[in-house]
Design a protein that fits this description.
The chain is mainly alpha-helical. The chain contains 10 helices and 2 strands, in the order H-H-H-H-H-H-H-H-H-E-E-H. The chain has helices at residues 36-41, 52-61, 65-71, 88-94, 98-106, 121-124, 128-140, 158-211, 215-229, 263-272, and strands spanning 253-255, 258-260. The protein has a two-stranded antiparallel ribbon. A hairpin with a 2-residue loop joins strand 1 (253-255) and strand 2. The protein starts with 35 loop residues before the first helix and ends with a helix. Residues 28-47 have low confidence and may be disordered.
């Protein structure tokens, strides 16, 4: 049956729909490009690369001592709070370079300042040499700052450094001596193990040799060992009745009225007779 025209759906004409009713696709946002080098140093100074503090921090980041020294002019406020209230001394202490710290301290930077984490420059230093630089300054200028407030524990004098160096050298010497002793003990243990292995092989060879001997030959060997343990009593002079080898100082093997230097000679002479 044919569907009436009133019930038929007409195709949608998109051109007849106003643009305001069509769903617009959002435009893709372009990412904001921020220089990586500046992000690692100081977000506050992105838009002012000519700022002297930005240049100082860049010199610290690149470990450029010459540029750092040239930027420390008289109008630079060494105690100016930067990001998270970190001062220049905080920044230099955190990069673990004692030369930057030494310059700032000698120019009057305050080691008592604390950042937002309530930490002083000494506390953010992750290197022993940097911490020692604070302690050396404390030894040279004991009354310049409140070092207790700066969390600097004690001064580091030249005498104390010499004592530390001496103790360090003694410790290294003791460690070398201990290592040499361990190596010596390992070598001796290895030599002892090799000797035991050799003795074991010799004992196994002797057992194998004894199993191949006749009962009479075993008795002769036992008699020889007994005489040898008694201090050599029974040793005679003369020659072997088989090979004519001298028997001076030896305990001979005897058979009937004959004397021999070895079990082999006993057998050979027995076969001859």
């Amino acid at each position: 049956s044919k569907i009436p025209e009133s019930h038929q759906t007409k195709p949608l004409n998109l051109k007849s729909i106003p643009n305001s009713h069509l769903k617009q696709r959002p435009e893709k946002l372009k990412p904001v490009e921020t220089p990586v080098e500046l992000c690692e140093i100081e977000p506050e100074f992105y838009e002012d690369p000519d700022n002297v503090y930005f240049k100082i921090l860049a010199a610290v980041k690149s470990q450029n001592q010459e540029l750092f020294t040239s930027l420390l002019v008289s109008e630079v406020n060494l105690d100016k709070p930067l990001d998270s209230s970190n001062s220049l001394l905080h920044k230099c202490a955190s990069v673990n370079d004692p030369n930057f710290v030494k310059q700032l301290l000698n120019r009057g930077a305050n080691p008592e300042l604390k950042n937002d984490s309530r930490k002083t420059p000494f506390q953010v230093a992750g290197d022993k040499e940097v911490r020692d630089e604070f302690r050396r300054f404390m030894a040279l200028f004991p009354d310049k700052w409140d070092y207790k407030s700066a969390s600097i524990p004690s001064p580091l004098t030249s005498e104390l450094e010499e004592e530390q160096a001496r103790k360090k050298a003694e410790k290294k010497k003791a460690q070398r001596a201990a290592k040499n002793q361990r190596d010596k003990e390992k070598k001796a243990a290895k030599k002892e193990a090799a000797k035991k292995e050799e003795d074991k092989l010799i004992a196994e060879a002797q057992k194998l040799r004894l199993r191949q001997l006749t009962p009479r030959e075993r008795c002769l060997l036992a008699a020889e060992a007994r005489l040898a343990s008694e201090g050599g009593r029974g040793c005679v002079s003369g020659k072997c009745d088989n090979c004519e080898t001298g028997l001076d100082g030896l305990v001979p093997f005897e058979r009937l009225k004959y004397k021999y230097c070895s079990v082999t000679c006993v057998r050979e002479h027995k076969d001859k007779l």
